[in-house]
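Structure ticket #2291
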Amino acid sequence: MKYISIIFCFLFYVLIVVTSCRSKDLSDPGNKLTGKVETLQLRYIAWGCACANWVTEEDLKKYQDSGLADNVIFIEPSTPELKVPVYFDVTRHYIRVKGQFYVDEGYPKGTVESEANLDPAKVFRYTSIEVVNIPFEYPPEFDTTLVLSYSAIGCTCPQWTPLRDAVDSLKVYYYLERGDTTLLDADELFDGSNIPLTVQVTGQWVSENGLPTGFEVPKGKPEYSKVFRYTKIKVLESGRVEKNGH
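Resolution: structure written out below.
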């Protein structure tokens, strides 16, 4: 009986410690949605602080000289699957979300207390999200043409390497990203057996350490690398010499 009492007291102590150490969720479960469904185009502002980071395109233009910090918002996914994708790049993308604002300013669900003082802001709860390329014309005079070989590595990671490095032990690997959906998708050319697979692509580097738009991340941590966005692609070799390209 004595030992049972000791064990019970110990477990009770552990429960108290765990409960006291658990961070408090700052969101208000009583905060209601407005009932007005809206679609917003949002840009991410890297403030470098514990604060709301999203702003609508309209407010970005309206308050870019003054008052921007007072017009940023929080966003909250309706389900975990709708979190901002890992390939989102603040310099290349904005998001289009559909949902509703909460009535009162506050914090997204899951926001916990921290040492930094986090100011409340408007919260937008969204039920759909789309990552969109920021419209930017890459001057053709800066175009580069690369000849790349597909490495067929057994992982979800960068697969394309310069042809000159294809037999080198110190290879570098890149991601490829289509400039538009009418182009061949380089990453869908490999059918499991058509090695060697070589392409010639023309375009520009869009990220020194990122992921291509639409990249699907498996379980685990993604591997970041340089991303090349191409506007022209030609298959040079696909287990055989190709005569046609796009």
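Closing remark: The chain has a mean pLDDT of 85.
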